Amino acid sequence: MSAAPDPQHRFSLERDAFGRLVLRLDDGTVQAGVVPVRAFPVTAPGEGISIVSAEGRELVWIADPQRLAPQVRALIEEALAGREFMPEIRRIAAVSGYVTPCTWEVSTDRGDTRFVLPGEEAIRRLSRATLLIVDSHGVHYLVRDVAALDRASRKLLDRFL
């Protein structure tokens, strides 16, 4: 899949025969194996994307991905979806106990699951309304808006905050 150069950002993006992303800059520079990275994946996922080399060096900064050509944006979103995994908790169904470690049963935007909360320090407040919870395997779960949770979920969560 290939996309024409973007007039705003002066680059094109395509996949090579190995499925790697290839960046072509307007000066003729070609970089294979580039990776898109969100600047603020939790607080502003739709803003600020950097395309970095395989070594982690920033090659292109995209302040507003919505201004990209649709083909380029699709390639970037596809690549981001493949490397980002942060289920969003929509409901807390049950907690095995109020002393950690304990098992949580939750409903997320990706389905129902269970995880072990290793300690209260694994719940980190990112803003007044947003929490990041890390399970015992290092999987990150997002609670985008605590107030949007149902009353029973908020009551369970309050015991750990």
Structural notes for this entry:
The protein is elongated. The protein starts with 10 loop residues before the first strand and ends with a helix. The chain is mainly beta and 161 residues long. It has a three-stranded antiparallel beta sheet with strand order 1-2-3, covered by helices on one side. Strands 4-5-6 form a three-stranded antiparallel beta sheet. The chain has helices at 70-83, 151-158; strands spanning 11-15, 21-25, 30-32, 35-38, 49-52, 58-62, 89-95, 102-108, 111-117, 123-125, 131-134, 140-143. The model is unreliable at 1-7 (pLDDT under 50). A hairpin with a 5-residue loop joins β5 (49-52) and β6 (58-62). Helix content is 14%, strand content 36%.
Give the neighbour order of strands across the main sheet: 1-2-3
Give the proportion of residues in helices.
10-25%
Helix/sheet category:
mainly beta
Shape field: elongated
Report Rg. Answer: 19 Å
- Residues in β-strands, percent: 35-45%
Number of strands: 12
SSE pattern: EEEEEEHEEEEEEH
Query: Termini, distance in Å?
Result: 47 Å
Mean pLDDT across all residues, rounded? 90
Contiguous helical run count: 2
Unreliable spans: 1-7
**Major β-sheet annotation:** 3 strands, antiparallel
